[in-house]
Amino acid sequence: MEKIISCCGLNCAICDARVATISNNNELRKATAEKWKVTYNAPELSAEMINCTGCREEGVKFSHCGVCEIRNCAKAKGYDTCGYCNEMETCTIVSGVHKYVPEAIQNLRSLN
Fold this sequence. Notes:
Distance between the termini: 19 Å
Helix content: 40-55%
Number of strands: 0
Largest sheet: none
Order of helices and strands: HHHHH
């Protein structure tokens, strides 16, 4: 299985936003927007907002990427991902992702 690891360790290759963007699948955009409205308590999300190639990939980014504290921290420290940071295991910025998606921290560990 292809992996495209984000700054926090999520696998962008299987993210519905990226899949919808790469395949230009408007039905998946609509379904993703509806799902994320509930999951992330984001009633303002629309299908038109579901466009992303991955936070570390060339191309369009989901609107959250610009303000993502995790992505901004990694970039400020000069890292591609949190996996290169000595503070990753105890970091409070990325810990929420790792708490709910334990695979993300495993993805980061596998990069080193």
